[in-house]
Amino acid sequence: QYTSETTTSCTVPTDETTTNITGTSAIVNWEAVSTAKGYKIEYEMTNGSGPVKTTFEKTGSKVISNLKPNTQYSWRVKSVCSLDPKLTSNWSAKQFFTTGTLKMGDEATTALAVYPNPVVETFTLHLQLQSSSVQSATIYLLNTLGQIVYNEKTTVENGLLLKEIKLNEHPTGMYLVKVIVNDQVYSASINYQK
Fold first, then answer.
1. What is the C-alpha separation between 148 and 120, in angstroms, rounded?
2. Which tens digits make up the pLDDT trace of 54-105?
3. Cβ-count burial of 84 within 10 angstroms (0-12 exposed, 13-18 middle, 19+ buried)?
4. From residue 75, how far is each of 94, 154, 183 by CA, in Å?
5. CA separation, residue 170 to residues 63, 121, 122, 148, 155 (Å)
6. What pLDDT, in 10s, does the model give residues 112-150?
7. What is the per-residue pLDDT across 33-65, written as a single tens digit (0 to 9) for each?
8. Which of 95, 113, 111 has the alpha carbon at shortest distance from 18?
9. 141-178 in b/e burial notation, b at 16+ Cβ within 10 A?
10. Residue 108, φ and ψ in degrees, nearest 5
11. Counting CB atoms within 10 angstroms of each CB, which of 2, 19, 26, 31 has the fewest?
12. Distance (Å, whole) CA 131 – CA 28
């Protein structure tokens, strides 16, 4: 009996990690597979009280949101190598993470992370968006008086903006980082110490 060999070329994703875990969201990541057209992600509460949710992503990471605080979740991912006929890999091993407790302002800042904080000279801005389309963004840095001390136009590609910003010309103190993408404002405060 002849079986098509195409299934072997659809590789199971590896190197799964879970990052940016908050009370209500997390970013699930894996090593992209060159033959994959996309990935199917499945996640659920490990206590079995909620439904199994599935989502689709074209890149090697996905923001999953609307999660319950203080709850353990499991997730797994498979490669989709062909849509017609449908051809997928096996599921990856299940990964586990626990959401944090819900803090005020969690929702607005889930997507934007700044590190290290406090900043000594340079900080990295990491913004993860739900949409994977290319979007223009503007980064602002404001001092405690609300004055803009730095601004830069940039683009968000595949839902990810990673930017390194130097602070060495500015005086020490607290600053507000604001990123504006399509009228959506994401902000985080940083403490600059020389």
1. 20
2. 999 998 999 898 888 889 999 999 999 998 888 999 999 999 999 987 654 4
3. exposed
4. 6, 32, 32
5. 33, 10, 11, 12, 25
6. 888 888 898 899 998 888 777 788 999 999 998 989 999
7. 988 999 999 999 998 888 899 999 998 999 898
8. 95
9. bbbeeeeeebeeebebebbebebebebeeeeeeebebb
10. -70, -25
11. 2
12. 15
State how far the Cα of 142 lies from the Cα of 132, in Å rounded to an integer: 28
Q: Residue 126: which of 72, 34, 63, 65 has the closest Cα?
A: 63
Residue that has been written with the tokens 């136009």 in this structure: 153
- Tokens at 54, concatenated: 């599935």
Q: What is the pTM of this model?
A: 0.52
